[in-house]
Amino acid sequence: MERTLSIIKPDAVANGHIGNIIKRFESNGLKIVAMKMIFMTKNEAQGFYAVHKDRPFFDSLTDFMSSGPAIPMVLEGGNAIAKNRELMGATDPKEAAEGTIRRDFAVDKEKNAVHGSDSPESAAFEIGYFFNSLEILG
Ligand code: ADP
Ligand code: MG
To answer: In this structure, which residues have their CB less than 5 angstroms from ion ligand 2?
Structure first.
């Protein structure tokens, strides 16, 4: 069993895709073991995406992530990190495979519906960024 951090991003919350995205996880063997709705400050978004601080899209990305409510959740299952990345699809919805979350629900390469941890190390940091151990109900 493995855990990963997912976020339903502000575009997907605003566009009414929460239920459809959660359905993808639950239908594909990923169990939600923690979840909350938050409205990040710019500073909180910058802290979450600190690994990207030198990228040209950092300022725009953190503006977007602090533009409205988002839903971080912890997903648990076999190979949860890779499984979630597969369900998400490529960063740019135009390049995402058919049937993926981003292909079906993202707006564009920035407003791309969901976040997913990309390694065990990032999952550990990202889960801890939003949840303490008492909030994760395995
Ligand atoms: P992923 O979310 O697929 O792991 P990255 O970690 O490379 O992608 O980037 C983090 C987030 O930054 C992306 O999900 C997207 O919201 C945004 N982003 C990435 N590349 C770009 C870009 N070229 N232009 C605008 N936003 C981008
Ligand atoms: Mg990433």
So the answer is: 118
